[in-house]
Design goal:
This protein is an alpha+beta fold. The chain contains nine helices and 24 strands.
Length: 422
């Protein structure tokens, strides 16, 4: 008797999407597929003495679903460190704070009074008087104050008194999709993220001795950097060998930044699932061009890192990043790297953490640094380019990035790769 064809198990949510014709079993979007999107306009300031980020958020949110959205959910992910919030990992009480504060909340011209908004750990729930109709664009406004950890533990916070990495730092719209509706999974530290593809215009005001690196493209480098640094930036974007853009002696000789008690840093990022940034008063900076996949399409790979005593691989990060981008673009997955730049910011305390176009990594005293660099760069394909829901299916992007990391080791560090297989 021949084996009868059997269908693989399908979750009820997928079955519903197939019936609605938003998805297909082949992976090709259904003829009624849709995605919501947003345009973020953020003006924020970092207060180094208190480690607070204060700002104003304006979001133009387009509802492309067939549903009227009677509720709106946003993420306040730094609330994972608020006193009383649940979290999956043990956390030193010294990291805890009073939580993200919001105020002056509006949807279109209607003020959302406290009775119509609720914060439950890392989720902000809003109930507008009028729902957001299919095809409508809603304007969402609010002021926010986000406390950042004064000592980094996981993914974001202060590395030292003059270095910060800001991930998950602003109120961000949850995803409303055709599979699960609103994504209301709480951030517990072990889960990561899931976002719409959106556009960002961000203005960050910091004390005048900080350099800022961020997702996207800086719009006003001539307003922040002195001319020698601008020339090195231009050179590094075309150079196949790493160019030292900022050295320690540049800080000592006051040859890095324009004068001012504070500086405004303007960035633009389009079609991105998130926006993160790092800042320091003393990090060195290198850059070079990676072929992506050829000299007509390059990726500006960069590293921002502190002075580290003893043996470490920080000085080779740009070289590692070049090799990773070129291998991934040409071999596996064999698709041109999704973005025009990538920054490895060495502000972590454990492993690495990916954000679009920027990663927060840890310094190591062996070629393990190169593994972390390659792994976090690979995440820009999975989940960012692919739009994977890491909150529910984080195993999927980790599987692919681990394959890419192993390919990188096999190609460029074969002795380490063979040891890792034993």
């Amino acid at each position: 008797m021949g084996l009868e064809a059997q269908m693989l198990f399908e979750p009820t949510e997928l079955q519903a999407a197939l019936q609605q014709e938003t998805r297909t079993r082949t992976g090709v979007p259904g003829k009624k597929y849709w995605q919501n999107s947003a345009a973020y306009y953020i003006k924020a300031s970092y207060h180094a003495d208190s480690a607070l980020i204060t700002g104003h958020l304006s979001v133009m949110y387009k509802n492309q679903s067939p549903d009227t959205l009677k509720k709106v959910y946003l993420k306040l992910m730094q609330n994972v460190y608020a006193k009383g919030s649940p979290r999956a990992w043990e956390t030193n009480p010294a990291y805890l704070h009073q939580g993200v504060r919001i105020g002056n909340v509006y949807i279109d011209s209607c003020r959302i009074e406290p009775a119509n908004r609720d914060i439950s750990s890392t989720l902000l729930h809003l109930e507008p008087e009028q729902g957001i109709a299919p095809g409508a664009v809603a304007a969402i406004y609010m002021d926010f104050t986000t406390p950042m950890q004064k000592q980094i533990k996981y993914r974001s916070g202060a590395l030292d008194s003059a270095t910060l990495f800001a991930g998950y730092w602003f109120p961000q719209l949850c995803v409303y999709d055709d599979i699960f509706g609103w994504d209301r999974v709480q951030y517990l530290l072990n889960t990561e993220n899931y976002n719409d593809f959106s556009n960002y215009l961000v203005e960050l005001t910091l004390p005048g001795n900080y350099v800022v690196w961020a997702t996207g493209q800086q719009l006003n480098p001539e307003e922040t950097f002195q001319n020698p640094i601008l020339r090195r930036i231009t050179k590094s974007k075309k150079s196949r060998t790493p160019v030292q853009i900022i050295a320690l002696e540049d800080y000592a000789n006051n040859k890095v930044l324009r004068e001012g008690d504070s500086l405004v840093w303007k960035f633009e990022a389009q079609n991105m699932p998130d926006f993160a940034w790092g800042a320091s008063t003393h990090f060195m900076w290198e850059g070079a061009a990676a072929l992506n996949p050829d000299d007509k399409n390059t990726c500006w790979v960069q590293s921002a890192y502190p002075e580290v005593k003893g043996k470490n691989d920080d000085a080779r990060i740009v070289e590692y990043a070049q090799k990773a981008v070129e291998l991934f673009s040409n071999t596996f997955p064999g698709v041109a790297y999704p973005y025009a730049a990538h920054i490895t910011f060495m502000g972590g305390k454990s492993g690495g953490m990916e954000f679009p176009m920027i990663a927060n990594n840890t310094s190591y005293d062996s070629t393990y640094t190169s593994v972390v660099v390659a792994h976090e760069i690979a995440h820009n394909y999975f989940p960012f380019y692919m739009g994977i829901n890491e909150r529910k299916f984080g195993w999927f992007d980790e599987m692919f990035t681990t394959q890419m990391e192993n390919l990188y080791l096999e190609q460029h560090f074969p002795a380490v790769y063979k040891r890792s297989l034993k």
